[in-house]
Design goal:
mainly alpha; 59% helix; elongated
């Protein structure tokens, strides 16, 4: 089942933050002429009218589509995907027989969803490549230099920041990684957030 939350829709459609997407900030054209009577049937009709109006506004909007300027390159995605699959070959998710590539794909899907919903000029290819490759330095024999040769320095630096430094004490590794992530473009921050979201899922 799918639910449409009006405030979330408004944030995406209007490019507004949470505080500026309440009822008093919404376009008057979204609200019809039906009175708010607190009678269940009347209020249901008013809610239906609201949904119809905002969906019509979305279809007719001349705003720049959310994905415009943020679409990633399919060949770039495929190259990173293949590289990650080869690097993690034989690895499985902890406590599972599923290939580790499942985790990388789920993280990347979180990143893709954010790229399409956030109104900002993302470097989509950087985000996608870092998402697919974010564990290759930490969990495989791939080096930062090899990543730079295949995908460029920005991707290599992003993945390196997302990787814990095994030369540090265990309790220092996460703080060190987060410090280095903060020095990277926001696309790398996004990958870290997507990784945490994925790890919290059952």
């Amino acid at each position: 089942q799918h639910a449409l939350d009006i405030r979330s829709f408004a944030m995406a459609h209007l490019g507004a933050d949470f505080c500026n997407s309440g009822k008093r900030h919404l376009p008057k054209t979204w609200f019809g002429q039906l009175p708010h009577t607190h009678v269940a049937l009347d209020d249901a009709r008013a809610q239906a009218e609201l949904f119809a109006n905002l969906l019509r506004d979305n279809r007719c909007s001349r705003r720049i589509p959310l994905a415009q300027g943020k679409l990633w390159s399919q060949p770039t995605f495929a190259a990173a995907y293949r590289f990650a699959a080869q690097a993690h070959a034989g690895q499985t998710l902890p406590g599972s027989d599923l290939p580790y590539l499942v985790h990388l794909t789920l993280v990347t899907s979180e990143v893709m969803a954010a790229l399409q919903s956030e109104r900002r000029p993302w470097q989509a290819d950087l985000a996608i490549q870092c998402a697919l490759l974010h564990d290759v330095i930490e969990d495989t024999a791939v080096t930062q230099e090899q990543l730079a040769q295949h995908f460029g320095q920005a991707v290599a630096d992003g993945v390196a920041a997302l990787s814990k430094n095994p030369q540090l004490e265990r309790e220092q590794q996460m703080a060190d990684s987060l410090r280095r992530i903060r020095l990277q473009p926001h696309e790398v921050w996004l990958v870290k957030l997507a990784d945490r979201i994925t790890n919290l899922q059952p």
